[in-house]
Amino acid sequence: MQPKEQLLSLQPYKPGKPVEEVKRELGLEKIIKLASNENPYGCSKLAKDKITEELSNLQVYPDGYAAEIREKLSGYLGVEQEQLIFGNGSDEVVQILCRAYLSPETNTVMAAPTFPQYRHNAVIEGAEIREVPLINGNHDLDSMIEEIDHQTKIVWLCNPNNPTGNYIPENDFVQFMKKVPSNVIVVSDEAYFEYVSANDYPNTIHYLKNYPNLVILRTFSKAHGLAALRIGYGIADRSIIKGMEPAREPFNTSRLAQAAAIGALEDEGFINECKQKNREGLELFYSFCERKDLLYYPSEANFILLDVNSDADSAFNYLLKKGYIVRSGSALGFPTMIRITIGEEEHNKEIIGHLEAYIESLVESVN
Ligand SMILES: *Cc1c(COP(=O)(O)O)cnc(C)c1O
What we know:
By secondary structure, this protein is of the alpha/beta class. It has helices at residues 19-26, 45-54, 67-77, 90-101, 117-124, 141-147, 170-179, 238-244, 255-265, 268-292, 312-321, 345-366; strands at residues 32-33, 84-87, 107-112, 128-133, 152-158, 185-189, 214-219, 232-236, 303-307, 324-325, 327-328, 337-341. The chain folds into two domains: 5-42 and 269-365, Aspartate Aminotransferase, domain 1, CATH 3.90.1150.10; 45-267, Aspartate Aminotransferase, domain 2, CATH 3.40.640.10.
């Protein structure tokens, strides 16, 4: 049976190899996965406590409207409750946006490389994809503006960008918003929001009033450490949310996810601690790259994309044999780079040691 024609060009999402399988295949005892930008410190205890409480209600459907976390988050963010939509991960909010606003007569503009789910979901809806190459890891906002025409429905900004970690400063963001026609949705995907420390990173929530075409995406999967539970959200003008709601499944976020998110929001201390340790980890990688003269992108997220000056897959395999799973750039549009999630200090130091040995083995093989 043939699916819709536009699906023929798509591949299902390929997750990294499960840790257990790698252990068995390579006969390793310890495997550290630094490939999916998960939080190495787990999640807040408050989130776990909420989950435990909720375990007595598993026979009851979740609240599809997610009223409790909605109320909490609206107060926390200072937006109206009607300005929020929850998804089974922010991945699902991307899907709902595409389902609600894209169709074969429309086009959508995004950077390349960026987070692949924008493209993937837009292709399923039959929309035309307009990709604008990054410049030095940054969105080329001027060229993105030029791609917008009367059929453009959604423009995607990934801030900070996955896989480069670069961010769009406030001034560039505002100049961009001024130029985008008001009937074109601009999505600011802020999956790594909690990790950002740059002073000129835009507080996009402030701009929702001036720009009712702005949609902000955030998630509990990354800094909050709740990737397993799948809960993320969109923030936008209520008219956009109203347009999206019919495309949302009735019970799309689970009881456990909603409860955990409520607990997670209450624990600012946990987030601050993770952010601080992540910064220290990034600095370790920066100084390693500078010492070894390796190109890297300064990151506002919890990962670093660095150049191994050789085939990314061979670096990936080298590290795998040492017990470290990273993300090869070959599938991300950077064939000589690898993306490493910042881990615990011990693991950062250890993988840097392995990388150093790998880089030196390259030099030796040339000599
Ligand atoms: C991880 C990630 C997401 C998706 O996160 P969910 O787990 O679906 O909430 C969205 N955007 C970017 C850029 C990401 O890196």
